[in-house]
Design brief:
This protein is an alpha/beta fold and 219 residues long. The chain contains eight helices and seven strands, in the order αααβαβαββαβααββ. α1 (6-25) packs parallel to α5 (91-104).
Length: 219
């Protein structure tokens, strides 16, 4: 049985929650903003990709697995989603999420759960489920994919770090060996097989920067 690394992941994201959110807020120096736009460009690109693939979300129920500071959650509500649920393992990320939706006036149509999808006790199902910036930290995705499949009625959107890019060894050293947070990378064939084995049909797989962004639907 593989070791559960989620406690390490939760601690890491809890510690850097505010630092990470400055990628979206821009509350940092000009040089740091430039580095974000250069080195982390696909963080912005994956956001645009998700919104494009979701299309018209009016009246839909959406779940964001690994919601972080709530950027996708509040945007979906602004675009007319009936209800959005954010799930994350880091309490500080959920605190930022709740502050954001209150500030944006979207809190009445969203809720948040402090949980890993493995132990999230809910009977809810969703029209769209997304897991973006999530699989980077998951050693063994299939069990979580099967649970996501049970909760997804129409569309599942996910982003996976590509296995071999120049950024892979940099992230491995910076995150895993220096900061103690495990990080993983995936081949396209591996991702597509895991999705198929979990009950999804892969609709498209796009290369977005150093990521594979995948649209799938339950079968």
């Amino acid at each position: 049985m593989k070791k559960d690394n989620m406690p390490q992941v939760a601690r890491f994201w809890n510690d850097i929650a505010e630092e990470f959110d400055t990628i979206y807020t821009g509350r940092k120096g000009g040089f740091a903003r430039f580095l974000d736009q250069w080195l982390r460009k696909d963080i912005y690109q994956r956001f645009d990709w998700v919104m494009e693939r979701c299309g018209d979300v009016r009246g839909l129920r959406i779940c964001d697995i690994g919601c972080g500071s709530g950027r996708f959650v509040t945007e979906f509500v602004k675009r007319g989603a009936a209800h959005v649920t954010g799930v994350d393992v880091a309490p500080e990320m959920l605190r930022l999420s709740k502050e954001l939706v209150e500030k944006d006036g979207t809190a009445d149509r969203c809720d948040f759960a402090l949980a890993d999808v493995l132990n999230w006790k809910t009977t809810q199902t969703f029209d769209i489920t997304i897991a973006i910036g999530f699989w980077d930290y998951i050693q063994d995705p299939p069990e979580r994919l099967r649970l996501i499949r049970q909760k997804t009625n129409q569309t599942f959107l996910s982003a996976w770090p590509r296995f071999w890019t120049w950024r892979m060894p940099v992230r491995k050293v910076r995150l895993q060996y220096i900061r103690g947070c495990p990080v993983y990378f995936f081949r396209r064939s591996q991702i597509e097989k895991m999705l198929r084995d979990s009950g999804f049909e892969v609709v498209r797989c796009d290369t977005v920067g150093k990521l594979f962004c995948v649209e799938a639907r339950p079968i």
